[in-house]
Amino acid sequence: MIIVRYGEIGLKGRNRKKFEELLAKNIERKLKRYGYSSHTKILRGRIFVFASDEAAGLIAKCPGVVSVSPAREVEEHLLFEHIKNVLSAYSPKSFRVSTHRVDKNYPKTSQEINEEIGRFIVEEFGWRVDLENPELTVGVEIIKGRFYVYLDRIPGIGGLPVGSAGKLVLLISPGIDSPVAGYLMMKRGSKIVALHLKHGDEGVRKVEKIVEVLDQYSPRKIELVVEDHSVILEKIAHKLKEINRERWICVFCKYTMLKIANDVAQRYGALGIITGDSLGQVASQTLENMYIESQATSYPIYRPLIGMDKNEIERIAREIGTYDVFLSMGEEKCLFRPRFVTVQGKYEEFEKIKNKLGI
């Protein structure tokens, strides 16, 4: 069995049970998708997942999970015998015992249990106690008078269960930023529909691989919608060149993307659109240009990366695995971007150009 711990869900008051049940259901769905048989049980601030220990890594990637531990349930009178049997396969230079009484009605304190188990291990194996930097930690949780023993604690990604905050459309590119934006919104409970506006087949293949990575954090397979944007953009680029306004191509590119995202959001019953915008990073992401681009849709636009710099975004991309996909296939270059672009566009001028283009 695997112990699943959560944090933010525990602060939800009367809605706590609803969030717990959703997280448990998400874990079951995800494990089923990856071929694991499982069932769950919610008990006193923990979710017990009855599945193979190998499933722990997948569970740790479920939004809402703080940490997981493959564990064994042991009756109190068999506790020391079990610990002896388990630890006989190890030979660390140092150890510590970490007990957590989820059930506060148990008569002994956590410290008293730590000392009893620690003394037994020293007498049995002769290992040195190190409370600061142990080579091995023996974990014990006490829930309703039952003891659960584990040796590993895998950190989860935290956040809220996917599905607790509605559905959003993610504008996803083959780059670094937008996959991170989608991941962060899933961590806040959103279901996502990924929308890729393709400029070429190579970009589509790359996005498919990125979505496969993001799938690891979703209880259900993420739907990928692909629309051809190159034809629209080529026409706009040609018309802008005719009226000597090529500098505006990046703004019109993002504006038309958001118009398509608006239609997809309507089609899927979504509540908003996610973009990978980071303030000031490129021409289409200045405050002036984002204001213009936002007029393309009546839906809220969520920009979780807006205050992050490139290093922060790349760090998260590396952690979740999408950065490796980006590196493996190289960066897709825009064929329509001119040498100089509009950085601080004026809305009035944009409207005039838009009318000339017939958009």
Structural commentary:
- It is a single chain.
- 40% of the residues lie in helices and 19% in strands.
- The chain is built from twelve helices and 15 strands.
- The chain has a five-stranded antiparallel β-sheet with strand order 2-3-1-4-10. A five-stranded mixed β-sheet has the order 5-9-8-6-7.
- A hairpin with a 2-residue loop joins strand 2 and strand 3.
- Helix 6 (201-214) packs antiparallel against helix 11.
- The longest helix is centred in the last third of the chain and has 20 residues, at 249-268.
CATH-defined superfamily of the largest domain:
HUPs
**Major β-sheet profile:** 5 strands, antiparallel
CATH class of the largest domain: Alpha Beta
Number of helices: 12
**How would you describe the shape?**
elongated
Helix coverage percent:
40-55%
What is the number of independent domains? 2
User: What Rg is obtained from the alpha carbons, in whole angstroms?
Assistant: 26 Å
What's the rounded overall pLDDT mean?
93
Per CATH, the architecture of the largest domain is: 3-Layer(aba) Sandwich
Order of helices and strands: EHEEHEEHEHEEEEEHEHEHHEHEHHH
Uncertain spans, ≥5 residues at pLDDT below 50? none
Q: What structural class results from the helix and strand content?
A: alpha/beta
The name CATH uses for the topology of the largest domain is: Rossmann fold
User: Strand order, biggest sheet?
Assistant: 2-3-1-4-10
Strand content: 15-25%
What is the first-to-last residue Cα distance?
Answer: 58 Å
Q: How many strand units?
A: 15
